[in-house]
Sequence to fold (259 residues):
Amino acid sequence: MATHFVIDGLKAEIEGKEILKGINLEIKGGEIHAIMGPNGTGKSTLASALMGHPKYEVTAGSASIDGEDLLEMEVDERARAGLFLAMQYPSEIPGVTNSDFLRSAINSRREEGSEISLIKFIRQMEGKMKELEMNPEFAHRYLNEGFSGGEKKRNEILQMMLLDPKIVVLDEIDSGLDIDALRIVANGVNAMRSEERGFLIITHYQRLLDYITPDFVHVMMQGRIVKSGGPELAQRLENEGYDWVKEELGIVDETVGQA
Fold:
């Protein structure tokens, strides 16, 4: 059965300030949706609120995967339900090797007694690392510690490929990547596209969408999705900026204060 992800009227605030003001979005398996918008319009807030970051309080609306209510779940339960977030700024975790973290993450989504064997895990991890052109030594280094920005982003894609989620949220995965790294990361995403998986890509730039062609592009301003279209919308934004959208919709030039 194809995945079905629905966000309906989602509102969220931080320290009493409303950031998301009613987000409506539907993603079906096999689809790639891109959200673009100026800084401070709530894009990263959307990603964090969906994943259950404690700093953000959801005040209204709903979000579900295949009919399961995400907002009633703890963060780990959302991950087990199939939601994956590739973070804009991945954390470093000293003392935990990359391979130990990845294997634990995979097993946390499996029933007790059906954990992945060490040999099978190593085979899968090494295969995916080769696809991402990652140095095998990174498997034994502490999670993200001493990694460059590009290495951290490849590591996020490695996690995605091994965890095999239903809905993937990529929060500015292209930030800080050179052209070669961007191509490799994009190839990893394209390789995972299937009817069982949908993508929500948050980005500022057309350049990522030159490598990952979205089915739908959404413009987010002032905590709302204000315009949607196809890949041509991203190209127009790249060429003309956001002023024409503001003029077309009569939007006052202000932000909501969060990325």
Summary: The chain has a mean pLDDT of 91. The first strand starts at residue 4 and ends at 14. The first helix runs from residue 43 to 51.
